[in-house]
Specification:
globular, 14 helices, 77% helix, 2 strands, 352 residues, mainly alpha, two-stranded antiparallel ribbon
């Protein structure tokens, strides 16, 4: 019968959303945690160098995460499983690894070095509306009017956060507005994350979590390492073997990279892109709260203005999600009417 299966589907759907929420909280706090780690490193200089530099956090943090991922998921890497992957699977895995494992983290970490954590958090909200737009275009997901208006409002909130920033020496004046390089880097990083989310949802839904995570982390780490060598030189990684660095990076890699990434990928396998976009839209609240509690970084007036508009967008998107759920429930009730049951009985079978 169809009715007994409904609780299972409901639990499965809620479980996916729960994973997304857990991942969102972890990712939202990652910027503040990263900045705090660099401050701890600044109190323990080796020579005249900070052993917990942003590049070392990304490189060594990913190495620690890779070690943990191999210990957890290493058994999934076997010939029988790998032979099932097509060329498209490997190309998609590579693209996602470059976008979300190397490009986006590198840009966001550099943005953290140039602007405040709250700015990076708010500008990063470009990602949900971009992801939603790409899901409609490429995945043919349906979006109602409230979700559309909410995405536009969130986008406007991000733009306000950027253009209302007062110009500083680290900013470029464009068209009379103070536009920081850090904000630009955060915006480009958001585009990379949105693209990787769509690629993962479209082509990698059937890839085992362990293979996805290990490949993404390994390739992303290698690519970032060589890019950093070209941009900054080998001296930039002079303290990469510091025990002080590694003890903090195992904590960072296990919590932020392994748990956060695993929760997000697992949730994305069972939830829709629109749901993932909605959940990630709440990260400004969690991120700004984390920045205040961990760093004591209070929001500025432009951040309050932009953040308020973003919250309006989140609320409108939530209305759209509630509307979808209501329609789905109504549809299920229609599909389980006595008339349908009578037709099934007359044909001599019940729906399975």
């Amino acid at each position: 019968m169809t009715r007994p299966k409904r609780p299972h589907r409901l639990i499965h759907r809620v479980s996916g959303q729960t994973y997304l929420w857990l991942a969102m909280v972890i990712f939202a706090a990652s910027g503040a945690v990263t900045r705090k780690l660099t401050e701890i490193g600044a109190e323990h200089f080796i020579g005249n160098r900070n052993p917990i530099s942003l590049c070392n956090v990304l490189f060594v943090g990913n190495l620690c995460a890779l070690i943990l991922l191999i210990l957890i998921y290493g058994r999934q890497w076997n010939k029988a499983t790998l032979k099932q992957f097509s060329r498209t699977d490997w190309v998609s895995l590579t693209a996602v690894a470059i976008l979300s494992g190397a490009l986006a983290p590198g840009l966001i970490f550099q943005a953290l070095a140039l602007t405040g954590v709250n700015n990076v958090i708010l500008v990063g909200r470009l990602e949900p509306p971009l992801t939603l737009a790409l899901s409609v275009w490429l995945l043919r997901e349906r979006v109602n009017i409230w979700e559309f208006i909410g995405a536009i409002a969130a986008f406007i909130g991000v733009i306000l956060t950027i253009i209302l920033q007062p110009p500083t020496d680290a900013m470029m004046n464009m068209g009379g507005f103070g536009l920081g390089i850090g904000e630009l880097l955060a915006a480009v990083g958001s585009v990379a994350i949105a693209a990787s989310t769509i690629l993962g949802k479209k082509y990698l839904s059937q890839i085992p979590l362990g293979i996805y995570s290990i490949f993404r982390t390994a390739l992303g780490t290698v690519i970032f390492f060589f890019i950093a060598l070209v941009l900054y030189g080998s001296d930039h990684f002079a303290d990469v073997l510091s025990p002080f660095l590694w003890q903090w990076m195992f904590l960072y890699g296990g919590l932020i990279v392994v748990l956060g990434q695993s929760f997000w990928i697992k949730g994305l396998k069972t939830a829709t892109v629109s749901m993932a976009s909605l959940v990630s839209s709440f990260s400004p609240i969690a991120g700004i709260l984390a920045a205040y509690l961990i760093l004591g970084e209070a929001p500025t007036l432009p951040q309050y203005i932009g953040g308020s508009v973003i919250l309006v967008g989140i609320f409108l998107s939530q209305l759209g999600t509630w509307h979808k759920i209501t329609n789905r429930v109504a549809s299920e009730k229609v599909n389980s009417t006595p008339a349908k049951q009578q037709v099934e009985t007359g044909m001599g079978f019940k729906g399975i």
